[in-house]
Amino acid sequence: MLPCYVLLDLETTGGNATVDRITEIAAVRVENGVEVARWSTLVNPGVRIPPFIQSLTGISDAMVATAPAFDEVARQLLDLLDGAVLVAHNVRFDHGFIVNELQRLERRLQIKTLCTVRLSRALYPQFKSHGLDAILARHGMQTLARHRAMGDVEVVLAWLDIARAELGSAALAQAAQHLLQGSASLPPQLETALHDIPDTPGVYLMYGEGPLPLYIGKSVTIRKRVLSHFQASARVAKEMRLVQEVRRVEWRETAGELGALLLESRLVKEMQPVLNRRLRSEKQLCAWRLADDPAARPLLELVRMDEVDASGLAQLYGVYRSKRQALESLRELADSNALCPQALGLESGKSACFACQIGRCRGVCDGRESPLVHHLRLQLALSAQRLQAWPYPGRVALREHDARSGRTDVHVFDQWCHLATVHDEGDMDSVLDSRRHAAPLAFDLDTYRLLLKRLQNAPRDSVVPLSDAAQSSAD
């Protein structure tokens, strides 16, 4: 199948690699198609084994009481894995446990991995299930040691022999090499196994040596997006720097794209990754406020967005990242619409402006155009940049659900501000109540644009106005 691989299986106290521990290890090393080493051991996890796990595996607290701890067998395991590909059924599970155990010993594991679940899918696409029980059933195999480490290793070894006999050695080797191609493009110093990263919606954080992330991104398929960074490294300078510096990847799953976008925007503003230029905190956001009186001078006032009440957004035009950007935009608007720079506050003076003297202003500054008509033309020119009023009487909730993971997120908004995300609608009242004495949320341009687009395309029944009771509980 591969020139050198170690087929491994673990039994553990549970399914969470960060808190649960290993109770048994079994491994068989194969070189050039020949088994060269076989090893198994019970491991004292240092914690009690839950009754359900004891009944599933048959491994009891008494059995591991005198077994070596992981730190006593780590060297033997690493020697066995040296220079090999780690192969396991659902390798993400086994690899994650080994990595976490080694991290507790301040050691790293850099190894390519191959998942025999994925290999089974590639070789036998006509079948729906590819767990060990399904493989046993479809090939008429039997074992007396299911859910024991060496017993499960021997099941996979026997299945590989069957696949080789049914499909041929070339097909087996080709499929295995194809699955390894993704790993070939990974940075050699990357400590996180690609297979550990879920292919679900969410946000990923890429770290170097320091405590702050180099880059934060989002995707509806996190693993594929992370891999795409490494595959593009030869073509994009930023990706090349990322590949040279990245050491580990963390992730936070969401129920869908909206949740991923909201979380990405918040985390980038909070953590300020060096390679994220977009979505950074905007401390100088500003907008134009138009005077109601056509005779007012100047007609436009530049206001800071952090000083604006969200309910007054409909009186504002444009959002700019600096005063300079706002003035440049206004000059272009005046020039293209024959508006008066004096009336807009771009020039000082009491007589006809320079634009009027060269025929590029219709003369509101020297009485040839009425202030009312000029005001109406200015409103029309600004109309495309007008910020939208909040289209609901109060708070609303948008629900996202991921059928694959079963995760549900409920996002709560008011006046274009993201108030909270809850995973259980029963938590809604407590979250809103916690906002009762909180400071008003500042306007966030990215959230505004995201939500504006989302609400325009959202089915009417997907936006749920919150009840009066929920509203009053937070006011």
Report on this structure.
The protein is of the alpha+beta class and 475 residues long. It folds into four domains: 4-184, Ribonuclease H-like superfamily/Ribonuclease H (Nucleotidyltransferase, domain 5, 2-Layer Sandwich); 202-271, 3-Layer(aba) Sandwich (GIY-YIG endonuclease); 286-385, no CATH class; 396-474. It is 39% helix and 20% strand. Strands 3-2-1-4-5 form a five-stranded mixed beta sheet, with helices on both faces. Strands 14-13-12-15 form a four-stranded antiparallel beta sheet, sandwiched between helices. Helix 7 packs across helix 8 (169-184) and helix 16 runs parallel beside helix 18. The N and C termini lie far apart (65 Å).
Question: How is the secondary structure organized here?
Answer:
Layout: E1 4-12, E2 22-31, E3 34-42, H1 51-57, H2 61-64, H3 70-81, E4 85-88, H4 91-104, E5 113-115, H5 116-123, H6 132-138, H7 149-167, H8 169-184, E6 202-207, E7 213-219, H9 222-231, H10 237-245, E8 248-253, H11 257-271, E9 286-290, E10 300-304, E11 316-320, H12 323-337, H13 341-344, H14 354-357, H15 371-382, E12 396-402, E13 407-414, E14 417-422, H16 428-434, H17 445-457, E15 463-465, H18 468-474
Parallel strand pairs: 1-4, 4-5
Antiparallel strand pairs: 1-2, 2-3, 6-7, 6-8, 9-10, 9-11, 12-13, 12-15, 13-14
* CATH architecture verdict of the largest domain: 2-Layer Sandwich
Which CATH C-level class of the largest domain is it?
Alpha Beta
Radius of gyration based on Cα positions: 31 Å
Span between N and C termini? 65 Å
Helix-and-strand structural type: alpha+beta
- Structural domain tally: 4
- What is the assigned CATH homologous superfamily of the largest domain? Ribonuclease H-like superfamily/Ribonuclease H
Stated plainly, the CATH topology of the largest domain is called Nucleotidyltransferase, domain 5
- Please list the strands of the largest sheet in the order they lie side by side: 3-2-1-4-5
DSSP helical segment count: 18
The oligomerization state is single chain
Low-pLDDT residue spans: 468-475
Please estimate the helix content. Answer: 25-40%
**Number of E-type strands:** 15
The largest sheet is: 5 strands, mixed
